[in-house]
DNA sequence: AACTGTGAAGACTTTCACAGCA
DNA sequence: TGCTGTGAAAGTCTTCACAGTT
């Protein structure tokens, strides 16, 4: 395994644990166990314990895990114990929806600026965030110390914008544009493709049908 | 392996291949090879060949793969050679953005109806799709033979709506609500969590920083 | 020479099963 | 008794490497 012996797949589940634990906290629960977590998230208890143990000794034999403590620990693991400045590039329907989404705050991401090329959008505010001209991208990324960008531009523009983002210092790109980005290796890219997700769902459904 | 010896991970990449092949077709290319595909999608050539070979003998030694033929074959694999009726439940910012997104058509998904509880939204049209009262859910799912649903309601309502969807006959749910659904096993659920994706990106970025 | 398809090896991930703590 | 953390085994997925086709 590559990094401190932590499988990539386990990292992917940490967000899931965190979301569930925050739910428990809202319900006033102070303690839980690998078995309870597993049941809710459709995993095995062994997997939950193994995943959590990759990052430290968070539980106590016989008692389980303390909700508050585990939340803090997992936030530390993900790096979301500190706040991250994020920008949104592309203010179409999807960009607008993301700018208005209030769920990022709770997860320590604050959207500090948006960008678009349409003169009619530049200067306006969406979800409390100012829309800038694309020309200002480099300046804002530098000045506001932006590390993460959400890319929601048309596929044809995606690689150009992504290259500019990375050159300006962005280190992570959440890519909603329906194309595979070709950027310098120092940047991390995470693709999100709703169409592809629907296709995979269709495949699973079709498979279940034939299995019958 | 569970299903005809096809790993889940390979299925996940089929959409990616398809998107790339359609790009090639638009560019007028008629043929490609595992090595070329791999370079563009950041995979290994062996992986591309293995993935495609799970589903059939699509290539020709020495020549590679024919773009058109491979597109048709992969659509058949995913089940998107036929059209799927889809509904969107929850017409908030995200639901609205998805209703307006024109990319589903090309992938054989047609959104036939939307649902919400807000009286001000019911009866209106968004992206050419009629918004119905949530009460009409069961009737529309049955009448229009809806197999797939996109769920974009608040977390608190998600399980209730999901249960109704499955009872009404829906077989797949693309879940944007930030909660893990508890539905009957006969239904397939695919979660999409943008917040979680951002968290994983943050983790990768933080890791790269410490590696330095 | 340029490729595919695929056994076999290797790498990674999950599950089992249990010693030991509360 | 109820639980964690973890070696060891089992299972899954990826890569290597090459026989065979065009």
Characterise the protein shown here.
The structure is a homodimer of 212-residue chains. In chain A, 47% of the residues lie in helices and 17% in strands. Chain A has 212 residues and is α/β, with parallel strands linked by helices. Chain A has a 7-stranded mixed β-sheet with strand order 5-6-4-3-7-8-9. A two-stranded antiparallel sheet of chain A has the order 1-2. In chain A, helix 1 (8-26) packs antiparallel against helix 4. The first copy, chain A, is globular and about 60 Å long. At the A-B interface, helix 1, helix 5, strand 8 and helix 9 of A face helix 1, helix 5, helix 6, strand 9 and helix 9 of B. The structure holds a DNA duplex (22 and 22 nucleotides).
Q: What features would you highlight for this structure?
A:
homodimer, about 210 residues, alpha/beta, 7-stranded mixed beta sheet, two-stranded antiparallel sheet, globular, DNA-binding
Fold blueprint:
The structure is a homodimer of 212-residue chains.
Chain A: H1 8-26, E1 31-32, H2 34-41, H3 45-53, E2 65-66, H4 67-78, E3 84-89, H5 93-100, H6 103-106, E4 109-116, E5 125-126, E6 129-133, H7 137-143, E7 148-151, H8 155-168, E8 172-175, E9 188-191, H9 194-211
Helix pairs in contact in A: 1-4, 2-3, 7-8
The first copy, chain A, binds a DNA duplex (22 and 22 nucleotides) through helix 1 and helix 3.
Short description:
Two copies of one chain form a homodimer. Chain A is α/β, with parallel strands linked by helices.
